[in-house]
Design brief:
CATH architecture of the largest domain: 3-Layer(aba) Sandwich
CATH topology of the largest domain: Alkaline Phosphatase, subunit A
Number of helices: 28
Number of domains: 4
Shape: globular
Helix content: 40-55%
Radius of gyration: 31 Å
Structural class: alpha/beta
CATH superfamily of the largest domain: Alkaline Phosphatase, subunit A
CATH class of the largest domain: Alpha Beta
């Protein structure tokens, strides 16, 4: 009886063709993505080595399929079938992801998303390109099956006969491989050629550098399997020596001065010093959540010594804490006076801050908050349209001016579109919020700010807790204790220190705070519900809370606009309830609202008019993704006006500080060859708005190359200096503000101090692969790879502010040489310092977060 598989003679050739086509297609795409980073001569020299494992995989698959029957035949067929299915899924995903983002898919990141309900929906948004590429490659496999089978079969017949007498002539299940037995001389010639070629390729493979060529040679499915291998155990117990030792020498140490605890990096407190530490006079009887290191330091002498020597570790035995006195990177500006215009305003009138609202804005690029006619993005749009005359240009400017009128008023920055004032204010923004602040008033607009992470929730931790997120993939922060108290923890401490019986009648300074988090999209993505609790929010409202029929403001017709949740206005009644409840019950609010519409896929509610900010060709636009994003920017701009209008309507506008901060930017193909934030270090993902709005504060524009780590100390500084806290709270805040790494934006920003630069580190989504390194003291920027899979990248933002001409190299010292030649000695010196400091910073974050893996 004929073997079962022989009844389907085309099955095995098709399966073999799938292995070959998908394996080589994956490698070709992989090499194509690195075309910019390797010299052409090196690429050609090492090209054969890149395909060595792909060829071996194909040969092994052919051999496994050549067995006709029996247990070995079945096992071989099953194994090749399994690998084929894996290849189809993995390689189609690679092509689909590249089509959407221009980047390489990372399997460990994909697996994390797939295990998350909301993350899985994110992956499903790429199903169309996945199916398109899988269909295309499967069709190609079917067409090429006879040719691939013939080539591999013929080669195995020739070399196999000569080497071990192996013959595939009787292997009837692989058609087109049956050839007459070749003459002895000819078959040995074929074997000789194959062996010579193999030895040459192996020789080149031994000679070539490991980086980047080992990474470029990775082959499906081995790269897929390697992504799931367990990492080696890591647990950092001691602070590493700072690499720029001359900047932290004892002669530069600073003594204590009032609230300032001094600066002595590298020193170690003695046991006697530790034993004499006392809790501050304002310390509560029991510390609230978020003050873990205070509990460890002050509970007893024994605990003090444990904390100081770093004895307890997660899973093992180490507990590390942050100490500003020992932080070699810390630069404080609290010794400087508050900005003069703010001082004058405080002398002239009271500036009460009863409530603090923090509006965290998803994918908020600074160049669209607001869009300005002087921007690079604006010029790109104009160039794409090529307006024929002044009238066409005026009409286009009219549409662009209507995109971000609320952001213009929040920041005080004019779009400068040269429109008639009556049209701009009366027609274009007739239904928009209009700032009621007096001329010259409105708050502080920060220009030059960068995000601390292009992963949203890591950025959220930075802006709410004043800490540097940990440079590991995804949210380890949820599993650890935040090494500084978040602003919500501090406000809870204020509540705990209030005397019983204090209420609304005694004034706002004696009222208790309530912290609330609001967003209209899911809280399940990456365990955001747990993160909210971890950061100290007392109440959180997510999509899951408003989507049930029992929800207070549930109604028919609620529709999700993307895979994360609802349109922004669905949260409006809950926001209004929260404010009204606080007013009625004498509460002070700390309220965070996270916008969401500007997240991919930039969906808008039905009925919202879509503008063509970019020109269309027929039914499509070459700038479709960016156009959708800009429409979502316009939608969110109007929504922010609605929020500001509600704050005025409820009567709290003149006693509310509103902090607007972007979680990260958003790169498009108009900016860079890689779209999105995933493993993309381009500057467009990092420039974000930071605005501290209060109608009674003077309108100021502060230029500071700061990160959102400055938000918490700035809020505390404002609460202290506007006399918005009672004496006890003010005493506490005046101590705690000295603990944070970020500088206050209420005072002149120090770009450097005693030779030390104000370094700004930015973690690149997903966290553990790349790091953005910048400094307020220099215009340079480094993208530092944390694995061997990425290049180093350098830019001079003073000459190339949009990073259109990045310098990239796989070898750091080669990059230094190139930078020195093109940008001079100072730039090369900065680059070497930046790399050293950044690698120190990575280990220091892991130590402070008590990170362990393995």
């Amino acid at each position: 009886m004929r073997p079962f598989l022989c009844r389907f003679p085309g099955l095995k050739p098709f399966l073999l063709s799938i292995i070959v086509v998908f394996t080589f297609a994956s490698k070709i795409l992989h090499l194509f993505q690195h075309r910019r980073t390797v010299q052409g001569s090196s690429f050609l020299l090492y090209l054969p080595t890149f395909f060595l494992t792909d060829f071996l995989v194909s040969i092994i698959a052919c051999l496994a399929l050549s067995k006709l029957s029996g247990s070995l035949g079945i096992a071989g067929f099953a194994i090749v079938t399994f690998i084929g299915v894996v290849d189809v899924g993995a390689v189609s995903s690679q092509f689909g992801f590249f089509y959407v983002t221009g980047a390489e898919v990372r399997w460990n990141a994909a697996s994390t998303l797939a295990s998350d309900k909301a993350g899985f929906k994110l992956l499903l948004s790429g199903l169309m390109p996945f199916f398109a590429f899988s269909t295309l490659l499967l069709t190609l496999s079917w067409i090429l099956a006879p040719l691939i089978t013939f080539i591999l079969g013929s080669w195995l017949n020739a070399d196999g006969n000569a080497f071990v007498g192996l013959s595939l002539r009787s292997r009837q299940c692989l058609p087109l491989t049956n050839k007459p037995k070749e003459p002895r001389r000819r078959k040995y010639l074929a074997l000789s050629i194959s062996l010579i070629a193999l030895f040459i390729i192996l020789g080149i493979n031994v000679y070539r550098p490991q980086v980047p060529y080992d990474h470029m040679s990775g082959t499906i499915p081995f790269t897929l399997a390697a992504a799931f291998q367990k990492q080696n155990s890591i647990c950092l117990s001691d602070q590493q020596l700072f690499p720029l030792s001359d900047l932290v020498a004892p002669n530069l140490w600073e003594p204590e001065n009032g609230r300032y605890k001094g600066w002595k990096p590298g020193s170690q407190p003695s046991a006697v010093d530790s034993a004499t530490l006392k809790a501050p006079p304002w310390a509560p009887e029991s510390w609230p959540a978020g003050f873990g290191r205070w509990m460890k330091v002050y509970n007893s002498t024994q605990d003090t010594l444990l904390a100081m020597s770093g004895v307890v570790c997660p899973g093992g035995n180490l507990y590390n804490t942050y100490d500003p006195v020992l932080d070699p990177m810390r630069i404080t500006n609290l010794d400087l006076d508050v900005l003069a215009p703010v001082q004058e305003a405080l002398r002239d009138h009271a500036v009460p801050i009863k409530h603090v609202f923090l509006i965290e804005m998803e994918s908020a690029r600074k160049d669209v908050f607001p869009l300005k006619a002087s921007s690079h993005l604006y010029q790109q749009i104009i160039d794409a349209h090529e307006p024929a005359n002044e009238e066409d240009l005026y009409e286009l400017n009219s549409r662009l001016a209507a995109m971000t009128p609320v952001a213009e008023q929040i920041t005080g920055e004019s779009g400068n579109f040269n429109l008639r004032s009556d049209q701009l204010r009366n027609n274009l923004t007739a239904d928009s919020w209009k700032d009621p602040s007096a001329p010259g008033m409105g708050g502080i607009n920060v220009v030059g700010a960068l995000t601390g992470s292009s992963l949203s929730f890591k950025s959220l931790v930075g802006s709410h807790c004043g800490v540097g997120p940990i440079p590991v993939n995804f949210m380890f922060e949820i599993e650890a204790e935040v090494y500084q108290p978040c602003i919500m923890h501090i406000l809870k401490l204020f509540n705990q220190l209030k005397k019983e019986g204090q209420n609304e009648a005694t004034g706002m300074r004696s009222q208790k705070w309530k912290s609330v988090f609001l967003q209209s999209v899911t809280g399940e993505f990456d365990n955001q519900v747990q993160l909210s609790l971890q950061m100290g929010f007392e109440e959180s409202i997510f999509k899951e809370n408003i989507s049930t029929a029992s929800a207070k403001h549930w109604h028919n017709g609620m529709k999700e606009i993307n895979y994360f949740g609802y349109e922004e206005p669905e949260i409006y009644p809950y926001l209004k309830d929260t404010i009204q409840y606080a007013n009625a019950n004498g509460e002070r609010l700390f309220l965070t609202h996270f916008t969401s519409t500007t997240h991919h896929p930039w969906g808008l509610p039905a009925g919202v008019e879509v503008e063509d900010y970019w020109p269309r060709n027929g039914f499509a636009s070459a700038h479709e993704a960016m156009n959708k994003y800009l429409n979502s920017v316009r939608y969110v701009d109007k929504w922010l006006g609605n929020v500001l209008g509600l704050i005025e309507e409820t009567g709290i506008a003149n006693e509310t500080l509103i902090v607007f901060v972007g979680d990260h930017g958003q790169a498009f193909e108009e900016d860079h060859h890689v779209t999105g934030t995933f493993e993309n270090g381009h500057i467009s993902n990092f420039r974000v708005p930071i605005v501290l709005r209060h109608p009674l504060l003077p309108r100021l524009e502060v230029h500071a190359n700061a990160t959102s780590m400055s938000v918490v100390p700035t809020i505390l500084d404002l609460l202290i200096n506007t006399n918005s806290l009672n004496d006890v709270d003010k005493d506490v805040a005046s101590d705690l503000i000295q603990e944070y790494e970020g500088q206050s934006l209420l005072r002149p920003y120090k770009n450097s101090h005693n030779g030390r630069q104000a370094w700004n580190m930015g973690i690149i989504n997903t966290g553990g692969t790349m790091l953005s390194v910048a400094s307020a003291a220099a215009p340079y920027r480094l993208v530092l790879p944390l694995t061997r899979d990425f290049t180093y990248a350098f830019s001079d933002l003073s000459k190339d502010p949009h990073e259109t001409d990045l310098l990239e190299d796989w070898d750091f010292y080669s990059l230094v040489h190139t930078v020195k030649r093109k940008h001079g000695h100072d730039a090369a010196h900065w680059l070497k310092d930046a790399e050293k400091v950044a690698r120190w910073w990575v280990n220091e974050r892991k130590r402070l977060w008590n990170y362990h893996e393995g």
